Amino acid sequence: MKRLLIADLMKSEGPRDEVTIQGWVRTRRDSKTFFFLEVNDGSCLKSMQVVVNEDATGYADSKPIATGASVTVVGKLVPSQGKGQMWEIQASSLEMLGAADDSFPLQKKRHSNEYLREIAHLRPRTNLYGAVFRIRSKLAFAIHRFFNDRQFFYVHTPIVTASDCEGAGELFRVSTLDPKNPPLTEEGEVDSAQDFFGRSTYLTVSGQLEGETYATALGNIYTFGPTFRAENSHTSRHASEFWMIEPEMAFCDLAGDMDLAEEFVKSVIEEVMETCKDDLQLFFNFVDKELKQRLEFVLSRPFKRVTYTEAVDILLASGKKFENKVEWGVNLQSEHERYLTEEHFKSPVTLYDYPKTLKPFYMRANDDGKTVAAMDVLVPGIGEIVGGSQREERLELLLENMKAHGISEEDYWWYVDLRKYGSVPHAGFGLGFERLLMFITGVGNIRDVIPYPRTPGHAEF
Ligand code: 4AD
Ligand code: MG
């Protein structure tokens, strides 16, 4: 008989005569003539309690069934006497598929997240990580739904690319060279210009530039894919490989971009709160007692919107002693972001109109000559989750910026073309998928919301 999902059985409206479940044993409790199993199949947070009496088929061979083993259970779904569950299964038959001995590392006790990172292949079998990764999946769907509902097209931008969108030089080189026998230059040095069958290529840091080419053809588009940054950041919010969502809209300015970012963040949080109630409850109860209130607060009012210049004034007026000095023109550090979101506004904040010296070549110059039409969304506890801008659509000004940033027109000829042929105002942003997931779950470390985190020096799996 086909297996049923525990998630569905938990919602059953009445008892059922014969059901089959398959999953992994979380715990076993023995009595004289029967025993209990808690079986989890990953479909939901809850495990199904199974009662196995001595008359059940398989009872005689059930000794080795222990925590971690995989089983098939057939039986009746009946109301449970136990606390916290509507239903349990009275087994008529029980079969072990794969044993697990007592070296199985997830015995019933709380493990630290640090320890569980070392067994990243087994951690999705815990309550916490099971919930994180179910929510991750639902969040991805909510994101696709959001854009699909608004007639944005999903564009797959390349992972291997020759361009450095952010111009920060944080690139992973993609090489096809044989390290033992590399091509050499006339000077006898490794000819890295021949990296990728004859040219230098890298893992993408952002799909934006390619996304712009599709926005200026299809109108509104978004990307959703892995991006890579070779920055040597050892923080709880940076990973070398992370997923980014990047909408790009033709005929749109910075105000429209900020509106979309806010609507987007709120809408997907709302959907996840609706579709992941049980899993989220775990985070509300055990990870962050203020999380629920914080999420509801975020949904209930507009984000604060202030210019970079106003933010600097607020920081200067705060009288706070920051480690990093604040003055107009510096990059705001996480202590500043925290002050703005957690102490001053106590709300997500959209900062806009940044000094042009802080930002990449593609951002649109404002009339003041000093700032660009950039925006970041900052949230309490995390800091920046969104970075975006209106793009420079004026050919002359773009070329000027490229020159100022040392970017060759030859390499970006296709990007420049967009300003030569039917140029339009356009804008977009990037949202860090893992950072949003951290915000929604209250999980404090990016390593705990991506299945196999890649951070400097870590890629064991
Ligand atoms: O601010 P960033 O660098 O912006 C861009 O890449 C633009 N090209 C986006 C665009 O306009 N289409 O990155 C965007 C977001 C950040 O706000 C942050 O949430 C996330 O990506 N991010 C990271 N997340 C995890 N680890 C890292 N190392 C990250 N770097 C950026
Ligand atoms: Mg940024």
UniProtKB/TrEMBL annotation:
GO cellular component labels: cytoplasm
Q: Does the keyword S-adenosyl-L-methionine apply?
A: no
Localization per record: Cytoplasm
> Might you give the EC number(s) for this enzyme?
6.1.1.22
Query: Has the keyword Protein biosynthesis been applied to this entry?
Result: yes
Q: From the UniProt record, list the reaction(s) this protein catalyses.
A: tRNA(Asn) + L-asparagine + ATP = L-asparaginyl-tRNA(Asn) + AMP + diphosphate + H(+)
Top EC class, one word: ligase
Q: What are this entry's molecular-function GO terms? A: asparagine-tRNA ligase activity; ATP binding; nucleic acid binding
* Gene Ontology terms: biological process: asparaginyl-tRNA aminoacylation
Q: Which UniProt keywords apply?
A: Aminoacyl-tRNA synthetase, ATP-binding, Cytoplasm, Ligase, Nucleotide-binding, Protein biosynthesis
Pfam families xref list: tRNA-synt_2 (PF00152), tRNA_anti-codon (PF01336)
Give start and end of each Aminoacyl-transfer RNA synthetases class-II family profile domain: 102-451
Tell me which PROSITE patterns the record gives.
Answer: AA_TRNA_LIGASE_II
> What family is this?
Belongs to the class-II aminoacyl-tRNA synthetase family.
Its quaternary organisation is: Homodimer.
| Name recorded for this polypeptide | Asparagine--tRNA ligase
